[in-house]
Structures are given as C-alpha cells and as structure tokens.
Design goal:
The protein has helices at 56-86, 93-118, 121-139, 144-172, 178-206, 210-214, 216-219, 221-232, 245-266, 273-290, 302-320, 323-331, 335-340, 343-356, 365-382, 395-421, 427-455, 465-473, 478-498; strands at 19-22, 510-513. Strands 1-2 form a two-stranded antiparallel ribbon. It has 514 residues and is mostly helical. Residues 58-507 form the Major facilitator superfamily (MFS) profile domain. The chain crosses the membrane at residues 57-80, 92-109, 121-139, 145-169, 181-203, 209-228, 248-265, 271-292, 304-327, 333-355, 367-387, 393-419, 439-459, 479-498.
C-alpha cells in the first residue's frame, strides 16, 4: 500500500466515518460502474448518443424540465418587485428569495436519501408536483406572507428535483454519455435566461404578475408525459433498506441555521447577534456532519469535488450580484444595459460545458476544472477595471464571457466527476451533498459580499436599490465594489487550489462502505 497524503491520514474522511480504504491492487479498487447488465451501456448501445433512439425521450424530458425551472428562476426575478409592491410586502422582499434557497437545502438531502432507498422516480415526480404547488400558492397569494410560504414550497420541490435528476443521469446513461447530458443541463439554461426576463416583463405589464407563476405548472405536464416511460425502465440499482433519519435531521438543522443567519443579515444591529449566534450554532456542527468528512480541508477525491462546487458557485454569484449595481451607480448605465452585460456569460457557460463533454478531453478532467477556476478568477479580477473612467464599460461583458466559460468547464466537470466517484447506492447522497455545497457556497459568499460592500461604505443593500442608487449618484463608492470583487477573486483562486486535490490518492482509488 502506498503512503497516504498527509491531509488524508484518516481513510474514513472520503465519504464518512464508516468507510474503509481499499488499495489499488484489490478487486474493488476501482469505483463500481453505475451500469448493470440491463443498462444502456450494453453492446447494442455502444454507438448511441444522448439523442439516439434509446435515450431521446428521456433526454428531451430532462432538458424540458430543467428549462422550465430555469425560466421560472429568471422570470420570477423580473416579476418579484411588482408582486411585492402589489401585496404591500416590500419589507419581506428578501425573504421571498431566501425562503426558496433555505427550503431547498433541506429538500436536497431528503431527495438524496429517498433516491438511494426507492430510486429517483418517486422524488422526481413528488418534487415536480411540489414545485408546481408552490407556484400556484405564490401566484394566488393575497398577502406577502402567503407569497413567501409559496416560495418555500417551491424550494422544497426544486431541491427534490435537482438531486433526482442527477441520480437519473447516473442510472440511465452510460459513463461515456454523462458529460454530454450534463452539458445539456447547462445549455437548457441559455434560452430561458435570455427570453425569461423579457417574457415575464411582457406578461407582468399586459396581464398580471400572477400569470408568471400560474402558467408554468401547466407547461410541466408535457415533459412529464414524454419522460415517464423511459423513467419506468430505469434499473433498480442497489437500494438502502431505510432512510438515514439522522442525515435528514441534520439537513433540517442546517436549513434552520441558514434561515436564522439570513434573518439576522436583513437588519444588522446588536439585536441581530442573537439569531446570528443561534444560526451558527445550528449550521456549523451540522454541516460538518452532513457533507463528506474532510470536505472543508479539501481531502482528496470526493470531498474536494463537493467543496469545489460551493466555492465556484459562491465566488461567481457573489461577484455577479454586484455587477449590475456597479454599472448603474458608477458608470450610469440603464438597468437593461447593465443586465445585458451578463448575458454573454450564460452563452459561454453552455459553451464551456460543451467543451468538457468532448470524449478526448476525459483524461484531463481535473486540469479542465483547474483551468476553469483560473478563468473565473481572472474574469472577476477584471471587474474593478470598469471603475476607471478611461476604461470602457463593455470590459465587464468581456470579463463575464471569460468567467462563464470557466464556470461551464468547472461546474459540469465536477458533476461528471462526482458520478464517477460514487457507487450506485451512494449516488443520491453524494449528489445531494454537491447541491447542498452549491447552496451553502451561494449563501456564504453572497452574504460575505454584502458585508464587505457595507463595511467599505457602499450602503446597506437591505435598504433597497433606490437608497444605493442615491449613494452612487452622490459620489459613488468604488472601494466597496473593489473589496467585493477582490474577495471573490481570492475565493476563486482557493477553488483553483482545490482542483489539485480532486484525484484520489493512489492508495485511495475508491472508498467502499463497510
């Protein structure tokens, strides 16, 4: 047995306390394939593509579901201000967003346990039904608290769906096709991101903001009918006898802790220290037990894959959240032009995801992810240049084109690598960990960006856009934006280091539960 890396001295750190180390010379040293003899990786499917006869219905159904979720995300952002004003609940505006993400944190872990026990079919359809119910609740709400509750129900549905879709990819497609399917996940976001705001704005202005929410559940019926026959043919796989209730309770505690921290961040003051302390007391110990052991010290293999997802997503979104505000307050652009500056990033994200799906690049997956993180860091580092009068504002669009390509390389490759390192019976749990890391990265680094923005004189973003616009017109706060972008650049560079830890040590080619 070769020597372990010093950071990996505890072999249980890769997936949990009950794991044991298997050397590369033992029969089970390589991860077991996710296919069974009845899966699409049989000889008669060797020449199939994701849009071939065998996989076409399932692929189109998956892309349709992801596209509708993406359209909802972009459309809701457009309709939300009008909805909050109509329901006389602007003071609860931030909770309409945080309720979704907080509820999804719990649902992701629940979905992982459910998939490992019963397969992905039940949680997928339950998630879609719950997501639709949340849309109806929000669209028919007569008070803002009911609207926020509907958003929470949407979050539960979204968390169930996204994890189940990853498990579907792991069980339905052979390993050689998974990069292409996950590239399609990214491509499914392109059109909704471009069309969603325009369509939602038109519907909101000419009909009602309510129809932005009420129309989507009807559209889900078609992709469900298309993919149901293919989903019923999925191999059963190895299933655990019962759900791990401990993990579900941990996820509930994490969601509660995140909710308390977000509540405290809405009004920074001495009294907010109480919910903040309670939130940290719940969040920190529970998340350490919920994610693979060794995640926060970048242990080799699966823990580093999970960590990288949160760092990449959080750094990118933490910077992106302040780009439109910077362009409006510091460069005098309209809100429309400021938003359009980010559009190129969505297109190149899909391009980067397509690049990583090329079969000839498979041996270099970890290097692709490292290159992606360096591109993200470079793109964020370019943003402060837009604060200089002599630099054209379109430098932001160029930077985000570069950053989007890096995200496509890193995020999609991470999903492929996670499925590759996961045993079939652990695919749900590991996919849930990946999504939880994503959500926590967003919450943590976007929150850090907000704190830095306020600390360096940018004004309290919780007081509304109008207050920040007035502050910008009064002289601007370039130092606040610079602090945000430099911090997110540093986070992306940390992610670049984590990519050097993605490949398991030679003596740790796989980890097999006892």
């Amino acid at each position: 047995m070769t020597a372990l890396d010093p950071l990996d001295a505890d072999p249980a750190d890769a997936t949990g306390p009950r794991a044991r180390l298997v050397t590369a010379t033992e029969p089970s040293a390589r991860p077991e394939p996710l296919e069974t003899p009845d899966t699409p990786d049989a000889d008669d499917a060797a020449g199939e593509t994701v849009l071939g006869r065998r996989f076409r219905a399932l692929t189109l159904g998956i892309i349709s579901v992801v596209s509708l979720i993406a359209f909802e995300a972009s459309a809701v952002n457009t309709a939300m201000p009008v909805a909050a004003h109509a329901l006389d609940g602007v003071e609860l505006y931030a909770y309409a967003f945080s309720a979704y993400f907080t509820a999804s944190l719990f649902a992701m872990t629940l979905s992982g346990e459910w998939c490992d026990r019963k397969g992905p079919l039940a949680p997928l359809f339950a998630g879609i039904a719950t997501f639709g119910a949340g849309l109806v609740l929000s669209g028919s709400a007569q008070q803002m608290w009911a609207f926020v509750a509907g958003r929470g129900v949407q979050g539960i549905g979204g968390g169930l769906v996204i994890v189940a879709l990853y498990v579907v990819v792991g069980r339905a497609y052979p390993e050689r096709l998974r990069p292409a399917v996950l590239a399609a996940f990214s491509a499914a976001w392109v059109l909704p991101v471009i069309v969603g705001p325009l369509a939602a704005g038109t519907v909101t202005e000419h009909l009602s903001w309510r129809w932005v929410f009420l129309a989507i559940p009807v559209l889900v019926l078609l992709p469900l009918s298309v993919m149901l026959p293919a989903l019923r043919k999925l191999p059963a796989g190895d299933r655990t006898p019962a759900m791990n209730r401990g993990r579900i309770l941990l996820a509930l505690a994490v969601a509660a802790g995140a909710g308390l921290l977000q509540y405290a961040a809405q009004d920074i003051g001495w009294l907010s220290l109480v919910p903040a302390a309670l939130g940290l007391a719940l969040l920190v110990p529970c998340i350490l037990r919920l994610l693979p052991r060794g995640t926060f010290r970048a242990a080799r293999g699966l823990p580093s894959v999970v960590l990288l997802r949160g760092v990449a997503a959080g750094a990118f979104l933490g910077a992106e959240s302040f780009v439109p505000l910077m362009l409006v307050t510091e460069r005098g652009l309209s809100a429309t032009l400021a938003g359009l500056s980010l559009t190129g990033g969505g297109l190149t994200w899909a391009l980067g995801s397509f690049t990583q799906s090329r079969p000839r690049l498979e041996p270099y997956r970890e290097r692709l992810m490292g290159a992606g993180m360096l591109l993200i860091a470079a793109s964020i580092a370019m943003l402060p240049l837009a604060l200089l009068d002599g630099v054209p504002a379109w430098i932001v669009a160029v930077a985000w084109i570069i950053g989007g390509y890096g995200m496509g390389l890193a995020i999609s490759s991470g999903s492929v690598l996670l499925l590759k390192l996961s045993r079939p019976e652990d695919a749900g749990t590991n996919s849930a960990s990946l999504q939880v890391s994503d959500a926590l990265g967003n919450i943590t680094l976007v929150g850090l960006s907000g704190v830095l923005f306020v600390a360096f004189g940018g004004g309290s973003v919780s007081h509304g856009t109008e207050d920040v616009l007035e502050a910008g017109n009064a002289g601007g706060h370039p130092a606040a934006f610079t602090a945000v972008f430099l911090a997110m650049t540093a986070a992306a560079l940390v992610g670049a280091f984590v990519t050097t830890r993605l490949r398991p040590a030679r003596a740790q080619q796989s980890v097999v539960p006892d």
